[in-house]
Amino acid sequence: MGLLSDPKSRERFSRIAAKYNSPLCVLAYVVGVVWFLALAYKPFNHRTYFSENALLPGLVEGKFRTENVATRISQAMKDIKDVSKDGPMPVAWIVNQFRGLGLDTYTQEYIQTIPVPSARQSEEQGKEMFVQLNGTNVYAILRAPRTASTEAIVLSAPYKHYLNMDHNNHAFGLMIALASHFRKSSYWSKDIIFLLVDYDEIGMEAWLQEYHYTKSPLLKSSPLHGRSGSIQAAINLELHSDQVSHFNVKLEGLNGLLPNLDLVNLVVQLCGRERITVKLHQQRDTFPSEGWPAFQQNLKTMSLMMLHQATGMPNGLHGLFLRYHIEAVTLEGVLEPGRSTTGFYRMGRVLEGVFRSLNNLLERFHQSFFFYLLPASDRYVSIGMYMPPFGLILLVTALKISFWAVYIGTPDPDPWDGEENVVIEHIHSKKTGDGQGDNTDSKRGVTKIRTQNYSDGDVWSLVPVVSCCQVAGFIASISPMVMTGLGHLFGTRPYQALITGATGMFFASLFMPKCITRNRLACTVNTLRLWKCAALVLQAIILAATAAANFSLGMLLAVTMVPVCAMVRPGKLRFLQAVLMLLVSPLGLLVIYTGLYLLLTETEYHGVVPSAMHLCTVVYYNILSGVIHGYVLGTWQYTLLALAVFPNWLFFWCIVFKKRDVPVVENKEEKKTS
Amino acid sequence: MAAHSGRNWAGLMFLCLLFVSVAASSNVEDQVGGFFKSGHTNNWAVLVCTSRFWFNYRHIANTLSVYRSVKRLGIPDSQIILMLADDMACNPRNPRPATVFNNANQHINVYGDNVEVDYRGYEVTVENFIRVLTGRLPPSTPRSKRLLTDDRSNVLVYMTGHGGEGFLKFQDAEEISNVELADAFQQMWQKNRYHEILFMIDTCQAVSMYHKFYSPNVIGIGSAQVGEDSLSHHVDPSIGVYIIDRYTYYLLEFLETVTPDSKKTLADLFRVCPKRVCVSTPGVRTDLFTRDPNTVLITDFFGSVRNVEITTETITLKRNVTAQSCSGSSCPGSRRGKRRKKLAYANQFPVEAAYEEEVTKPQWHFPMYFVAALSVFCITVVSAFRI
């Protein structure tokens, strides 16, 4: 130590950090938050640009003229659907459509097991206890005429099964129309795979897993009989009608992954070329782009993006491609009443342009940003711009750590009423040699004095509390599974049991401080300082790591948890602290951010009680989908919350409720002298 | 070697002319005054496109267009070294397979008949380019891939690609710096490989490539100043790429008006692309060039024009004046008289030398640490025995 750094200057720094701790913390937090919010303001972010030269966006003239095919096919598909009602996907008919164009067409069957006991089948006591979904994907490969099939691009569309919704027949129509147009051309340097997916994400996951030879124990699928090369990019298409007013571009993928910004730019630019409005999260870009209303709008778009990203759940089929490092976006054609609309012709031209640009690619997307936030479709905030404010917010935690670390080993300047005065008296009396007053413990024959422990905190006291918290976290992470198993025995509906498991563990663990205080651990003021330090260090690590993987989740956690957790200390204003802590608990945060999301998406307000009910419902479904997606698609947000954030929060919760003991310490000197 | 034979042949010609000049009288000398005005007897062109990839289609089109122009003006394929770093005609992305166009009207397929690409694809490297210029090619290289110039050769060097300040990128892997290029030209000069060079380059910051030149009789033309980008001219929407660069576009427009007998001079060439149309500012460097660009014909570089004047009388020729005009020791003419020891090139792969070295050197070789360890071991053993 001290070879390369001057310990004195470091000391000075920590002294300053300790002296002006609270103002510095407030300053860092406020500056961090304001800075971050200001990034949505136009002068503080940048205009998007193309980093990849090879794309050559929009240089080529569109030649798409087969929009009548799209109309015909989508109508035919609708007719089939009307006849079959809620039947399975018309696989044979779809295969015929692709074969009719002369494409290599294949099907893939799969069975997905969802590890949730099925309510229906449990009565039969049958072999299959879990919910099972089976479906058939259909895909067709347009082979590039003048190259080997070493690379491919994918145009996918989900076949939706939901009742009283259209099932994406327009997207299929457009897909067939594009296929019939594309196959006439000789300039493809990559194969084009047209993929119609059964059951949204699960079907897509089945296809991608099989394509990349990855296996999942819960998903069984038939092998792919036709293949192409490595997939470079994918466009997923969802059309709600044959006339759309705008494209909603969906970016957020699995676990908060985002597609390369170049692909997003490409789609946005080509839509602009065909004069189709592009929206992000149904939010229109503002005009004029500067000023207060524009800032509000941009901030709203950015917040919605962050809220979506933080969930880690893909908001379209494109999200699953991202796991395989395949850049993908979903184009959702939305019909908004009262706006001018666009038909298949221009939608087809946009997609043709996108595919011709992707065809020009020479290597994988690698140039532009993978970590960014979009306040508008043509403005971006890159990782280099949003990390400093996040760092400032984490600086609060760092300052608090240094503050508490400096004070470990010093007496409490602010002793509690009653207890400490007595202690100090005893110390004085010990110094005068009159220490054997009323504190002699006759049981063990050793003189003990109640004293404040001035030594460094007891590091070993961390072990039980941290491990207790971690065990609680572990139980929380497996509780949905355990509870659905148990619920199955008692005949509870699986989803209810699942929710009960997830939330029940949370509420049960609120009583943990009670159990911890009962133990025989001596908890002096320095031990508590040490606990606080350790909790803050853990928090900083968890938040920084989370932000590196999923920035939005890290930021949303940091912005709420950091100030509250930095403030809590045992003793004073315990009730207020408890309320604040509950607000920033994982469940509390979920409620808060769900409420924010509903507020931003302008869900209709029907009074307090119905809104609260609605909020509860949405929270319920969020937890549910978080857990289910964790099992089916491998999102880790629920696991992260249960295994890292929740134990850490519980640690703070314990600190709030920790009673400071005045320990009984053996007085060895006394024994020797006597 | 082929370069030797080329030079010998040229020397022979020269001696013949001298011989003729001694024998003949000088009645029509005025008429013949302009006959050897340029001082060159043959024309060569080195046309280089250094960039790969589909989105650099325009660089291939640039080079092929210049190729087509110089060929039209009379330089034969045997005297053109054409280096193309990529094959756009066969690129799967090309909607018009087997063609390269230099205009959206698609009137001229510049990759049509009789295109002889000497170096293609990954053969286009800095090393190969320098070797071609300096004549240091492996003996197995065919004549068509050699620059068989002599001290009476006017060489047109046209390069295009992506450049920066002081360098030009070759493929995606390497680059040639302006110092390397200047040294290559100096070597050419020392090896009597040119008479005059017209160096023309169409890249971003192009003029930086000729800033370091120091060899005589070189003209440099660049499409953009330092700090400027050289821009493309227009897009062909049916092919979907930028199809030609601005400077080359206007250069070709100018060259279309040139015929083998045209009297257009280099000064006209310097004006082909004013900033108004070029957007970038083309630059010219003439300080190394001894002749007045206003009197130098375009066809001295862009064509291969043989002056044929039929006279009924025998003409007495003097020694070429322009050859003497070069200064001092660097003049090729002054060195020609000296008889020099015949030089041979070092083997590119010194296999034999290495083999000999291996044979002559002792086969047994102990590393130092082995000797040290052995001696320590011996001492230990000896001392152990003594104890």
TrEMBL record, chain A:
The keyword Protease does not apply. Its main location: endoplasmic reticulum. Coiled coil: none annotated. It is a multi-pass membrane protein. The chain crosses the membrane at residues 20-41, 495-512, 533-558, 578-600, 612-632, 638-657. SUPFAM superfamilies: Zn-dependent exopeptidases (SSF53187). Signal peptide: none annotated. Keywords: Disulfide bond, Endoplasmic reticulum, Glycoprotein, Membrane, Transmembrane, Transmembrane helix. It is found in: Endoplasmic reticulum membrane. GO terms for cellular component: GPI-anchor transamidase complex. It holds the Pfam family Gaa1. Gene3D superfamilies: Zn peptidases. GO terms for biological process: attachment of GPI anchor to protein. Heteropentamer. Part of the GPI-anchor transamidase complex, consisting of PIGK, PIGT, PIGS, PIGU and GAA1. Interacts with PIGK. Component of the glycosylphosphatidylinositol-anchor (GPI-anchor) transamidase (GPI-T) complex that catalyzes the formation of the linkage between a proprotein and a GPI-anchor and participates in GPI anchored protein biosynthesis. Binds GPI-anchor. This is GPI-anchor transamidase component GPAA1. It comes from Branchiostoma lanceolatum (Common lancelet).
